[in-house]
Amino acid sequence: MPKVRLHRNGQIYEQEVPENSNLVVLAGTKKFPQIRYGCGMGRCTRCVSRVLAGGEHLPEPNWKEVKRLGEEKLKNGYRLTCQLWITHDIELLQEN
Ligand code: FES
């Protein structure tokens, strides 16, 4: 199972998640409640995370991420967490 390490509010939360999990779905079902999210549909950007490690295993940003985040943020490792399905270990930062 992939391991997710989340940095948020000065804390580090780490847990294994089922293969191919969507982290916002896990947050919504209280299985990973520390993850910040909103719409779950790639619209609000509340779930934005900076990928610190493991980004090489993620698919290319989809059109919603391109539209909401823009080239600069994507280039700096930002992704919409609600648009990611996790298949490998990943480390994320959610800034306030
Ligand atoms: S939760 Fe709204 S864009 Fe991801």
From TrEMBL:
Alphabetical list of SUPFAM superfamilies matching this protein? 2Fe-2S ferredoxin-like
- Please report a single Pfam family linked to this protein: Fer2
InterPro entries with a match to the protein in the record: 2Fe-2S_ferredoxin-like_sf, 2Fe-2S_ferredoxin-type, Beta-grasp_dom_sf
Q: Which domain of life is it from?
A: Bacteria
Residues annotated as domain 2Fe-2S ferredoxin-type:
7-84
Tell me what this protein is called.
Answer: (2Fe-2S)-binding protein
